[in-house]
Amino acid sequence: MAVEMHAGLASEGGSKLKMLLTFVDNLPNGTERGTYYALHLGGTNFRVLRVHLNGQRSSVLEHDVERQPIPEHLMTSTSEELFDFIASSLKEFIAKEGDGSNISTNRRELGFTFSFPVKQMSVSSGILIKWTKGFSVVNMVGRDVAACLQEALARKGLDVHVAALVNDTVGTLALGHYHDPDTVAAIIIGTGTNACYLERIDAIIKCQGLLTASGRMVVNMEWGNFWSSHLPRTSYDIDLDAESPNPNDQGFEKMISGMYLGDIVRRVILRMSMESDMFELISPKLKIPFILRTPLMAAMHEDNSPDLREVARILKEVFEIPEVPMKARKIVVKVCDVVTRRAARLAAAGIVGILKKIGRDGSGGITGGRGRSNTKMRRTVVAIEGGLYSSYSLFSEYLHEALNEILGEEIAKHVIIKVTEDGSGIGTALLAASYSS
Ligand code: ADP
Ligand code: MG
Asked: Ligand 1: distance of its center to the CA of 333 in Å?
């Protein structure tokens, strides 16, 4: 991971890791004041939110959120339709403030969380590199996403300024940093997975002459696309990738994130049922891709009943396999365990890769080996967010276990993993605050 990060920073296209510049050179520190808005497109739900800041980090951030699924037809419609929908949602949200007469009183500042790969030109502009996650709005690739939104806001007569265009990981880092200035990286492990971190400007070799006051910039790794010949892949991974709409893409994500884990388990169970008499018959449902969602797989994995009742119930409900013998139930739990443990350990290894890249893995840089180094390990916080990590306790347990194992306990105690809540939304509103002036 650390080697690929170097390569991705050295030249455009130098690695499968895009290492995208974000132009975020200053992270929120708690002194921000005022009311700011954020729109989030690219998660399970589309969200609109408002944050009130009073200049004191310690006081609770007040915020209001509205979330709704993006109507399916808009995911493949025209950009005008998609952005008009987004602008209308914001207009309705603002109209509910007070008596509604305040719509045009003063200009509002907004951050746009857009969780797709974007090549940024500035903190508030950037062009879409490609759609992911089922979106395929025509004529959008290559266009400035923030400008599309700004135009739609104008069409709706809203005096709202798009102050920041932000990847969801960057929002998470911003919120993490707002609460704890030792935060240096952010990871999302939900439906997909991605990471960003604070890099030294002189390490971003592909962009010579870049200057920032802080000497740093947040880099969006797009780590879901990480690949390395060192990464051991099974036949299940190879088949899942080959049958996916984006073969050879997002290889790391396909071994880690919530979108895929359930389907890896299904593939293993299918093969077992074909090559053994584990179940009496081969259920045709076992052949249906993505029929086993990760939350149900987690429920089987975490079944604590003595007769593994939940495992049997889910196998029956999802795959229509009746009367699963106890021995087979145990094997299914074991399969879930192996798949999830691998995913969590890969994510942990990725985090250590980032720490290594920025000299926070305790190896003491070029001098001295681990443990023998005299350099004092600094407190290092990694913000983390996403349903897989926060709702699947065995996943997070395995991730922590692997971090301790790789770093060693002495170093690991300086590395703090902190869950942020809705950083992808709130953090973006914070960035709108930092960058609107
Ligand atoms: P998104 O990634 O769409 O922004 P989240 O961060 O909330 O949304 O992650 C949702 C994903 O997390 C789901 O797609 C699912 O894969 C996973 N997930 C949610 N709840 C659980 C659970 N209880 N067990 C395992 N995985 C879960
Ligand atoms: Mg999300």
From this structure: 20
